[in-house]
Amino acid sequence: MTTSRQHDDRSDRSEPGTPPLPDQQVQGAAALARLARELGLTETDVDELVYEMGHRGASSAYNNGAHPELGDLDAFDAVHDDADDPASAINNRGLEAQLAALVEAFGEQEVERMLRDEAPGHTHPKAIS
After folding, report:
1. What CA–CA distance (Å, rounded) separates 108 from 91?
2. Rounded to whole angstroms, how far apart are CA atoms 3 and 11?
3. Reported confidence tier of residue 62, pLDDT bands at 50, 70, 90
4. Which of 36, 40, 43, 96 has the most other CB atoms within 10 Å of its CB?
């Protein structure tokens, strides 16, 4: 069950047993949070990026044989279902936590590009065939 305290208390950004983030990563996430706000993005706008990050990891796990005891489709579903809970936990901790997780996964420059792509009014360039 979710309580309003869980959504409002963002002072503790780490999960129990999770090592603290390096200072450089925290500073990068803070700078990216400022950029996100300047671009008109909120934590809700970044939610999907976090889910996509989790599902990239799930796809890798599936491709590397996760859940060999299950059939192909069941294994695929299992790894992707398993990816949703951690992504949701990250999203519930707010924008800085979202960005810190994305920076850890992709690096600061890539996350900046991702934010700019998500910004309202951004037009995606045509794909090169």
Report:
1. 18
2. 16
3. confident
4. 36
Give tens-digit pLDDT for 78-125: 877 877 888 999 999 999 999 999 999 899 999 999 999 988 876 555
- Helix, strand, coil shares of the chain, percent, nearest 5, are 65, 0, 35
Q: CA dist 57 to 7, 81, 119, Å?
A: 26, 12, 24
CA dihedral over 77, 82, 83, 85, signed as positive or negative: positive
pTM summary value:
0.68
74: CB partners within 8 A, 6+ apart: 67
Tokens describing residue 91 = 């999203």
Question: Taking a C-beta distance cutoff of 8 angstroms, is the pair 50, 90 a contact?
Answer: yes
- For residues 4 and 9, give the distance between their C-alpha atoms in angstroms, rounded to a whole number: 8
